[in-house]
Design brief:
Oligomer: heterodimer
Distance between the termini of chain A: 37 Å
Number of helices of chain A: 0
Shape of chain A: globular
Structural class of chain B: mainly beta
Strand content of chain A: over 45%
Distance between the termini of chain B: 37 Å
Largest sheet of chain B: 6 strands, mixed
Mean pLDDT of chain B: 90
Number of strands of chain A: 11
Number of strands of chain B: 11
Radius of gyration of chain A: 14 Å
Helix content of chain B: under 10%
Largest interface: A-B, 24 and 25 residues
Amino acid sequence: GAVVSQHPSWVICKSGTSVKIECRSLDFQATTMFWYRQFPKQSLMLMATSNEGSKATYEQGVEKDKFLINHASLTLSTLTVTSAHPEDSSFYICSARGGRESSYNSPLHFGNGTRLTVT
Amino acid sequence: QKEVEQNSGPLSVPEGAIASLNCTYSDRVSQSFFWYRQYSGKSPELIMSIYSNGDKEDGRFTAQLNKASQYVSLLIRDSQPSDSATYLCAVRRSNSGGSNYKLTFGKGTLLTVNP
């Protein structure tokens, strides 16, 4: 089945620094990837849709200059949290739609997530 | 009204019992419905998908969809302690594909299966 790999699985950084999270589709090409964020005991909230070769589409309330998304190839999307602050501490999860079963109704495949802690 | 609503639980059932998880959604044009299981600290994994009214069975899991009532449920038969997790209901709202393919998640129901 389709596999999405996300790296790193956890990261601790100091306030004001930037962190890059990678999301790779391992056995399929993903023209579209999605970045979610999940705070403790909350649901997944879509941050942005990453489109290969074009600009990402951000959800309302998500700062595009703070959360930089690059989808340079069909198998890799990156999310960079710039000038991170403690309130950015969260569980970031990428997902992709694609592969042999790709269709109108195909489900999303999730990466293992990245737990970011900003001190 | 929230787009996708679930009872946060916790829902506790004894081992071997049937666990019933419910979800309602607000957008009538929703087309696709998914149940994901999420263990603590892990990312969601797909359990079931359903697109048409009625029941869909896969092993111990049965998804039920009623579009008229805007209601989707998940039944887990012969519940096991390993089923203890948060179950997320997800709904695809838009009728378009491509980059507009989005899932909206409920907050999830915490299920505890007691041995």
